[in-house]
Amino acid sequence: MNDKKLKIGLFGLGVVGQGIWKIIARAKNAHAEIVKICVRDIDKPRGIDVTHDLLTTDGNDILNDPEINLIVEVVDNADASYRYVTEALRRGIPVVSGNKAMIARHLPELIRLQSEHNTALLYDASSCGSIPVIRNLEEYYDNDLLLEVKGILNGSTNFILSRVFDHGEDYQHALRKAQQLGFAESDPSFDVGGYDALFKLVIITVHALGVYVAPDHVFTYGIGNIGDFDIRYAREKGVKIKLVAQVVKVAEEKFTMFVMPEFVSPEKYIYSVDDEYNGVVIRGECYDRQFMFGKGAGSLPTASSILSDVMARRHDYRYEYKKMHYQTLPVYTDDVELRIYIRYRDTDISKLPFIRVREQYTSDDNKYLIGDILLKDLKHNRALLDNPDIFVANIPLFFKDRDTLPE
Ligand code: HSE
Questions:
Q1: Cβ of residue 191 lying under 6 Å from some atom of ligand 1
Q2: Which atom, in ligand 1's list, is nearest to the CA of 184?
Q3: Which ligand 1 atom sits nearest the alpha carbon of residue 154?
Q4: I need a labelling partner for 168 at 20 to 30 A (CA). Which of 42, 92, 255, 341 fits?
Q5: What is the distance in A from the centroid of ligand 1 to the CA of 105?
Q6: Domains of the chain by residue range
Q7: Distance, CA 1 to ligand 1 centroid (Å)?
């Protein structure tokens, strides 16, 4: 029997930190105890029974404590997270983190630090809350068969879209609810703008294909400009609009990735993924599709993923990043054709170099165009798409011939 005791130093006692406090107390088999917690404000009222003598505002009280053999980091600030995590790794202390922005931006360095200091950084909680997507991609899908990982990776935008689509709620009202329920980031533009999903996609791509693509290189377009016309249009076509992140092998040695709203038809697995739930479709050469579904945001779902990583450390589990050392790695490309819907009214969209225009509609109030365009041309004209007069959605093309459920 493994009688290793984990003495945890916790950074952050916000929504997720409080969930971790509750869940560690209940997890008898974790043999884990939180012995110190670094917070910004010791006197802030919290709805948990944590005693003041565990709290500190000085991160060094955790980093210098020889009793602490695991750091759990869930602070709401990517810069502070980077400082604590890199310092801990340099000292050889293993870390469990949920900070997707920090991890997505610094993953190559974080991988190097783990290797140089013979320690571990686990972060399943960074991607899709309670769904064990990272460890599954790392361990089970360690083969050459993956074709695509695609899904709803952000709970807040999915919650907002569900409220707007299924309950006819006002967009701003739904956003406020997502904030009150602790799903949204402290700056919700990370959710709405698609960046939270982007960070998760960057991390997922490392574990799916063994390739790191920096967030700045990935086309990302959120739901902020969605309007009543788009919702009515989708309803009339019998589809939903979801914010979808995807990494797709487009040729034997090439893959693409992007985040954007997508028209999702009822036969797709992710059509029924509503509210704060996330859903991830993994497609492979021999098994078509597999589907993972679960709560993607919120205190306890995210904390449950942290607990799994904590328990994995009892057995010294670490990611090996085996795929990064494959002989041939696919190369990222944005030279791929997408089919998009673009709704606008007054903006001149003639700068967008459509390869083919398939449909065009004009009324007094709105216009839309459906056409084929290269992803790199969309990227090139990214600033134009932020114009509040415009909304863009992807019409899925990849694997179209195989993308229906069996009869
Ligand atoms: N803001 C994130 C979301 C939290 O809504 O998915 C979980 O990562």
A1: yes
A2: 1
A3: 6
A4: 341
A5: 17
A6: 6-122, 135-295+327-394
A7: 36
Q: Whose CA is nearest to atom 1 of ligand 1?
A: 184
Q: Mean pLDDT across the chain, nearest whole number?
A: 95
Give the pLDDT confidence of 174-193 residue by residue, as tens digits: 999 999 999 999 899 999 99
pLDDT recorded at residue 142 = 85
**Does the pLDDT of residue 215 top 50, yes or no?**
yes
pTM over 0.90: yes
Q: Tell me whether residue 400 is one of the annotated catalytic residues.
A: no
Which of these, 49, 27, 52, lies nearest to 39 by C-alpha position? 52
Minimal-distance CA residue to ligand 1 atom 8: 297
* pLDDT score recorded for residue 1: 52
Whether residue 297 has its Cβ less than 6 Å from ligand 1: yes
- Set 36, 100, 150, 200: catalytic member: 200
CATH topology of domain 135-295+327-394: Dihydrodipicolinate Reductase; domain 2 (3.30.360)
Do residues 134 and 127 make contact, with C-beta atoms less than 8 angstroms apart? Answer: yes
Judge if 6-122 and 135-295+327-394 fold alike in CATH terms: no
Percentage with pLDDT > 70 across the chain:
98
